[in-house]
Amino acid sequence: MPAGEAFSDRQREEIERAVRLAERESGLRFSVYVGTLGADSRERALRLHAALGPDATSAVLVAVDPGERRLEIVTGPESKRQLDDYSCGLGALSMTTQFAAGDLAGGIVNGVLTLGEHARTPKVLHLGQD
Amino acid sequence: MGGVRSAYRAAVVALTGTVVLLVPAAAHAGSAEDEIVREGTLSTGEWLLWVIGLPLAVAAVLVAVVLGASAARGQRYRPGLTWWAEPAWVNGPEQPDRAIEAAVPTQGGGGARARW
């Protein structure tokens, strides 16, 4: 199969916008990888997450392998506190529902937004008051 | 797979368009066109052009519109088929290959996994 771009310019912009919104909501770093993950998809996703560098500990990686129909969401030790595994599961469900219908970009956008919502840091009011 | 589907779609559109346009023309040919030919205003070649050439031209336009719209949308993801695209990484490291090589898989984190 000839290689090409996974997304159109517009789709990529929508994903980037969703990533920015999720980051603004949560204060975490969000990253989306779409490509082959290999036989051990979890191991590969953990490596990709670590490749985010110093930010990895507070980062959330969404790794999608469309060919094998696998989705991996990886959180770091810090980001796990804000985004627990249950919330990641909900985000994964949101994404795979749309993936199964053939909407790869839409699923990623909605999934990232869902994860951002769940990882949102609540505003603390009256912090300075006794 | 996509090529076969496109060819099939093109054939269906062409055949349908031709049949739809040719049948009324053929039915009509026995009356008005005969009159016109008899009166000598249209030669046989012109008559064939109108009855066969025009429907074929319309069918060709339909095919071009259908295939053009499909081509403009580009190749899209279809579950269950081979993935064709280069890896894409939004908000990833600046030098992905080097970063992946140097990375030690994250430990102590969490997340989720799913299939569809």
Explained architecture:
- The complex is a heterodimer of chains A (130) and B (116).
- Chain A is of the alpha+beta class.
- Chain A has one domain (9-118): Diaminopimelate Epimerase, Chain A, domain 1.
- Chain A is built from five helices and three strands; from the N terminus they run αβαββααα.
- In chain A, helix 2 links the parallel strand 1 (29-34) and strand 2.
- In chain A, helix 1 runs parallel beside helix 5 and helix 4 (85-100) packs antiparallel against helix 5.
- The longest helix of chain A is centred in the N-terminal third of the chain and has 18 residues, at 9-26.
- The radius of gyration of chain A is 15 Å and the shape is globular.
- In chain A, 45% of the residues are buried.
- The mean pLDDT of chain A is 91.
- Chain B is mostly helical and 116 residues long.
- Chain B has a domain at 2-72.
- Chain B has three helices and two strands, in the order H-H-E-H-E.
- Chain B has helices at residues 2-39, 44-73, 96-102, and strands at residues 88-90, 110-115.
- In chain B, helix 1 runs antiparallel to helix 2.
- The radius of gyration of chain B is 28 Å and the shape is rod-shaped.
SSE topology:
The complex is a heterodimer of chains A (130) and B (116).
Chain A: H1 9-26, E1 29-34, H2 41-50, E2 59-65, E3 70-75, H3 79-82, H4 85-100, H5 104-118
Parallel strand pairs in A: 1-2
Antiparallel strand pairs in A: 2-3
Helix pairs in contact in A: 1-5, 4-5
Chain B: H1 2-39, H2 44-73, E1 88-90, H3 96-102, E2 110-115
Helix pairs in contact in B: 1-2
**CATH level 3 topology of chain A:** Diaminopimelate Epimerase, Chain A, domain 1
- How far is the N terminus from the C terminus of chain A? 65 Å
Looking at the overall shape, the CATH architecture of chain A is Roll
SS-derived structural category of chain B: mainly alpha
Q: How many structural domains in the coordinates of chain A?
A: 1
Q: Output mean pLDDT of chain B.
A: 80
The helix/strand series of chain A, from N terminus to C terminus, equals HEHEEHHH
Strand tally of chain B:
2
For this structure, the quaternary state is heterodimer
Number of helices of chain B: 3
